[in-house]
């Protein structure tokens, strides 16, 4: 996915941008970038590959060369950024987070004007941030350009710009699928995805942008340049998986939502006939743990940690790029506590089941360590559709998703017409899906959180929450 952090002040903000960006490292694993603006030295920029080395390690050596009263940084799971752009709108730095589904169409339209061109990545793809900047530059000012870009982009685009006047312009995507928050301290302001990132830097909560809203920030304050829209579809997966425990989105804390979510799962399972008799409830580390805590507390089953993750050398489970190497890394990270596994009946709660690759490794690992039974619970419904907005899964095909593959195996193309039924465990097709996954993975039982239960745990108006990956509905 990705995230960004920007700061503007009467003092040097290089350290704020460095630490604030580093605190978004849980949102992406491919590229990191920083750019500072100083009135005397102009823009200073650096981009590094962070697939095998954390952001902090790569950028520490650059800090001596960074200085300025305004700056921004980004963690990107897609293309290298921030970019420096010179156009009739002036010189500015830009970072984006989102997806453009109609890239070819937009590029073709832009290239229809002779003399226009794009740099391309080695794959031949156009950098999404460069394309966004090109769309912005079609208008006569940055605000009009941002609105134009968001209107013509099929997908989602959240934007942060640093101008040569030393100001920041932040634009939340048109449906508010991602959060954008402003922090304040006596000597300046910051803009961030994650509130805890600026709390650690002594900023206080000041403002949360609405969907489609555009705000300008300088050392003296912030001003809305374009008002918020009325519709919002914030991503539910922020609470389920992506969000850091102490993050708050639309006033809802991530950790508390996960406790509630686990408790609702246990409540609903008890109403359907009872929670399995197990020795321990456990969470698949790390984000599955709070869901499991809620499940255990409500069900009255003991909570334990039958295995832990060894993270000093491989801190993030979804890197590196190669699936075979990634699977081996996932297995190497799982360190068992045999005394809590051998002969024990275990119920695990994971944040989600996406492709199922690492889940298979986990189940095999538990049985090989002597588990008597392994029951699995997913803290969200079966994922049936690749995300069109935030790129939370690297897979581009629906058949990369475990639930969709199982449906295809069970009923072929006919099954693809009945995905809503397969996603509901109360239906015959839903029960069949659970049975087939249990059979292939060796679970003693499997259950998914219902969509109603998930939305209850979040607590927002369901019309304001994006559930596309589960329902396929906009």
TrEMBL record:
<dbReference type="InterPro" id="IPR000836">
    <property type="entry name" value="PRTase_dom"/>
</dbReference>
<feature type="domain" description="Glutamine amidotransferase type-2">
    <location>
        <begin position="1"/>
        <end position="220"/>
    </location>
</feature>
<dbReference type="GO" id="GO:0009113">
    <property type="term" value="P:purine nucleobase biosynthetic process"/>
</dbReference>
<dbReference type="InterPro" id="IPR005854">
    <property type="entry name" value="PurF"/>
</dbReference>
<feature type="binding site">
    <location>
        <position position="350"/>
    </location>
    <ligand>
        <name>Mg(2+)</name>
    </ligand>
</feature>
<feature type="binding site">
    <location>
        <position position="351"/>
    </location>
    <ligand>
        <name>Mg(2+)</name>
    </ligand>
</feature>
<dbReference type="GO" id="GO:0006164">
    <property type="term" value="P:purine nucleotide biosynthetic process"/>
</dbReference>
<keyword id="KW-0315">Glutamine amidotransferase</keyword>
<dbReference type="InterPro" id="IPR017932">
    <property type="entry name" value="GATase_2_dom"/>
</dbReference>
<comment type="pathway">
    <text>Purine metabolism; IMP biosynthesis via de novo pathway; N(1)-(5-phospho-D-ribosyl)glycinamide from 5-phospho-alpha-D-ribose 1-diphosphate: step 1/2.</text>
</comment>
<keyword id="KW-0808">Transferase</keyword>
<feature type="binding site">
    <location>
        <position position="287"/>
    </location>
    <ligand>
        <name>Mg(2+)</name>
    </ligand>
</feature>
<dbReference type="InterPro" id="IPR029055">
    <property type="entry name" value="Ntn_hydrolases_N"/>
</dbReference>
<dbReference type="InterPro" id="IPR029057">
    <property type="entry name" value="PRTase-like"/>
</dbReference>
<dbReference type="Pfam" id="PF13537">
    <property type="entry name" value="GATase_7"/>
</dbReference>
<dbReference type="GO" id="GO:0004044">
    <property type="term" value="F:amidophosphoribosyltransferase activity"/>
</dbReference>
<keyword id="KW-0328">Glycosyltransferase</keyword>
<dbReference type="GO" id="GO:0046872">
    <property type="term" value="F:metal ion binding"/>
</dbReference>
<keyword id="KW-0408">Iron</keyword>
<protein>
    <recommendedName>
        <fullName>Amidophosphoribosyltransferase</fullName>
        <ecNumber>2.4.2.14</ecNumber>
    </recommendedName>
</protein>
<keyword id="KW-0479">Metal-binding</keyword>
<feature type="binding site">
    <location>
        <position position="235"/>
    </location>
    <ligand>
        <name>[4Fe-4S] cluster</name>
    </ligand>
</feature>
<dbReference type="GO" id="GO:0051536">
    <property type="term" value="F:iron-sulfur cluster binding"/>
</dbReference>
<feature type="binding site">
    <location>
        <position position="466"/>
    </location>
    <ligand>
        <name>[4Fe-4S] cluster</name>
    </ligand>
</feature>
<feature type="binding site">
    <location>
        <position position="387"/>
    </location>
    <ligand>
        <name>[4Fe-4S] cluster</name>
    </ligand>
</feature>
<feature type="binding site">
    <location>
        <position position="469"/>
    </location>
    <ligand>
        <name>[4Fe-4S] cluster</name>
    </ligand>
</feature>
<keyword id="KW-0411">Iron-sulfur</keyword>
<keyword id="KW-0460">Magnesium</keyword>
<comment type="similarity">
    <text>In the C-terminal section; belongs to the purine/pyrimidine phosphoribosyltransferase family.</text>
</comment>
<keyword id="KW-0658">Purine biosynthesis</keyword>
